[in-house]
Amino acid sequence: MTIKSGVKLEAGWLSHLELEFNQPYMKSLRAFLLEQKQEGKTIYPRGNDVFNALNATPLNKVKVVILGQDPYHGPGQAHGLCFSVQNGVKTPPSLVNIFKELRSDLGLEEESLSSGFLSSWADQGVLLLNSVLTVEKANAASHQGKGWEVFTDKIIELVNRELSGCVFLLWGAYAQKKGAVIDTAKHLVLKAPHPSPLSAHRGFMGCQHFSQCNAYLKRKGEAEIDWRTDIAKKG
Predict the structure, then answer these.
(1) I want to staple 137 with a disulfide (CB 3.0 to 4.6 A). Which of 3, 42, 130, 197 is the partner?
(2) Rounded Cα–Cα distance for residues 182 and 136 (Å)
(3) Residue 105 annotated among the catalytic residues of the structure
């Protein structure tokens, strides 16, 4: 996978981020990814999906931001939306806990969260953004510190500056540190431990972030998020 200056990016994002692709950190990142490819390494997600979070949720449609860390590094999982997996793939442990909290918080039925494919959230204005946008197969966190974090910091700063009344769901210390720039006078920032099985019991379970998010959107006169993941089945 390579990053080109003419990368396919939704127009609203591209108008603000295009110059980033000519910055030294991005050129270095491009060289790193090219080297990985030349060495025969498999990179997830596939090239067309790397910027999926931005293309699936245009800048002017963003209502909620969920920050993840790295893409999944197993076959068939990552497709550019944080915490989401492709259709037919087993639901990962952190997403299992997210679904448990959704059922507890909103009373959703188990069958309404039968899919780990979260594109319906993105379609409604939930920006599912990882801090790092690529990873080597079977090598977790292998692309950290290569430049992606600078780029995704720019995205968060852009949402913070250009929009108002967004809900930021910051789960875990990593996301909370990355989201420290967010203006809490303009946006709602909700913090909790990460939904990983290692930390979910420390306060993620029972955080009620989803009901708080929807209550905030409703107060603003915005449509609430339908957090079901089988919307396509139910219509």
Answers:
(1) 42
(2) 30
(3) no
